[in-house]
Amino acid sequence: MASIRALLTGDTAEYTRTGETLDRTGRQARGALLSAAFFTAADRRFSKTGTPADVVTFVGNLRARHGLTEELDPRTAERLLLATFTDEEIDDIGPRVRGEHFTILLVGLIMDEQLPDAELDAFLDEARVLADQWLAD
Known about the structure:
The chain is mainly alpha-helical. The chain has helices spanning 2-8, 12-21, 24-46, 52-65, 74-82, 95-113, 117-136. The chain has one domain. The protein is built from seven helices and no strands.
């Protein structure tokens, strides 16, 4: 969880460093936590009142604000976000591309929320519960 927290607080060096030390099980757990955090953040942002237009706007703003025109494919990003609150199919998006996009989108979602430390910790705890459920299945 410290690795994902480092990512979300802008310490990408620590995120990368800890990632390099993970074994297969650790990488799997971190991937599950990252995915769960993405779904949790997207759900918080879009599930109650979000529309496809809101998703397009978010992705466009994220790409423009952070110069992510090469790293973040807009249609892939939009589909991944839409899949959290619609019946959008994403089975054709490979795991590597999903992971890369989940990471960028998660950071963008959390940056927009500007969570204080205690709220970020609570968010990560919520995501960890979901990740643990996924890993147990």
